[in-house]
Amino acid sequence: MRVLTDLLEGGRVDRRRFLTATAALSVSAASWTKVLDSSPPCTGEIPQGPGLLSHISDRLDHLRRLDDELGSGDVLQLARGELALIVKLIGSGRYTSAEPRLYALACEASRQVGWAFFDQGKAGMAARYFDGALRASAEANDPIAGAYAASFAAIQCYSTPGQAEKAIDLLQAARDRVRWHATPRMHAMLAARTARALSVTGAKRECAHQLHLARTALDQGPSDDDPGFLYWVDEGEIEMIAGSAALYLGDPAEALRRFAAALDTYPGDEAYPRSHAIYLARSAEAHLAMRDLDAAVAVGRHAARCLGGVDSARSASELQGLRKKLRPHQSYPAVAEFLQLG
C-alpha cells in the first residue's frame, strides 16, 4: 500500500531502489518469488467481493481493448485513475474480506499503467509500476496475475540494450511460479516471450525450442480456466513473435515466412493496429535485408497507415527505425517518396 500510494502521489519512497529501470525489475522478481514461496498455497478462485469490484474489473478489461486500438496515451491516465480508486477502497477498510480481489485488481491496473508508460517511452516510471504490480499480486497471493505483469516487464527489459538476460530471468521466475497452475494458453504466451528474449541474446537453438513449446501449448486449445486477459494470445500472435525473433537472429527469409503465416489469422489492422504496425515495420526490415525495396516500401506504407490515430511512441520509434535503414537507398524513387512523407 505504501508503494502504490507513493506512486499515485508522485513521491520518492525507496528511490534508491529505482536507480535504473532494470535494477528495479530484478529486485521485484526476487522479492515477488520469495513472498509467494512463503505464502500458503492459493486454493480456488480469489473471492469476487461486492459488485463494485466487478465493475472495476470490467473497466480494466475495456482499457485493455482501448490500448489495443488507440495506443497508450488515453489509457495511461484512465488506468491510473482506476488504480487510485482501488487503493482508496483498500485503505477504507470497508472491504476486508475482498482485499485479495482488490489487490489482484491493483496488480492489473498497475500493470496497465506501467505498460502505458513504457509504450510512451518512459521506462523509469514503467518499471516502478511494474514493481507495484508484482507487489500487489503477492499481496493477493495471485501468481497468475503477477506472472502476466512480469511478462510485460520482460518486454521492457529485452527492449533495453544489454538487458535481455534480465528479461529471461523475469520470465523464468514467472514460469516457475505458475508451472502447475497456468493454462496451456498462459504457458504458450510465456514461452513465446521467452523465445523473443532469447533471440536478442543470439541463442538460436534455445529460441527455437521455446517457440516449439509455445506452439505445442497453444495446440492444446482454449480452456475454461483461461484468464480473460489472454484473449490476444493466438496462432497469429505467436507467429508474429517468431518472425521478430528470426529477424533479430539474422534470418530475414524465415522472418518473412513467419510474418506471412501470421497474417492468415492475425486481425491486426482492425483489432491491434499498434502491434500490427510494429510487426509490419519489422517485416519491411526483413524485405529490405532481402534487397526487395519495393516490398519494403509497400509494407512500410501499410505500417504507417496502421499508426493513424494511434498514440504510441514505441510504434512510432519502430517506423522511424525503418526510415533510418531506408535512407541509404533514397536514390530509389519509391524509397525517396516514402521518406518524404515524414
Description of the structure:
The chain has 342 residues and is mostly helical. The chain has a domain at 1-179. It has 17 helices and no strands. It has helices at 2-9, 21-38, 51-70, 72-92, 99-119, 123-140, 143-158, 164-178, 184-201, 204-218, 235-248, 252-263, 268-271, 273-289, 293-306, 313-326, 333-340. Helix 9 packs antiparallel against helix 10 and helix 11 (235-248) runs antiparallel to helix 12. The chain is globular.
Summarize it.
The chain has 342 residues and is mainly α.
Q: What brief labels describe this structure?
A:
single chain, 342 residues, mainly alpha, globular
Give the overall silhouette: globular
Order of helices and strands: HHHHHHHHHHHHHHHHH
The number of helical segments is 17
Task: Tell me the major beta sheet.
Answer: none
- Which spans have pLDDT < 50 for at least 5 consecutive residues? 13-19
The strand count comes to 0
β-strand amount: under 5%
**Would you tell me the overall average pLDDT?**
90
In percent, how helical is the residue content?
Answer: over 70%
Distance between the termini: 45 Å
Would you spell out the secondary-structure blueprint of this structure?
Layout: H1 2-9, H2 21-38, H3 51-70, H4 72-92, H5 99-119, H6 123-140, H7 143-158, H8 164-178, H9 184-201, H10 204-218, H11 235-248, H12 252-263, H13 268-271, H14 273-289, H15 293-306, H16 313-326, H17 333-340
Helix pairs in contact: 2-6, 2-7, 2-8, 3-4, 3-5, 4-5, 5-6, 5-7, 6-7, 7-8, 7-9, 8-9, 9-10, 9-11, 10-11, 11-12, 11-14, 12-14, 14-15, 14-16
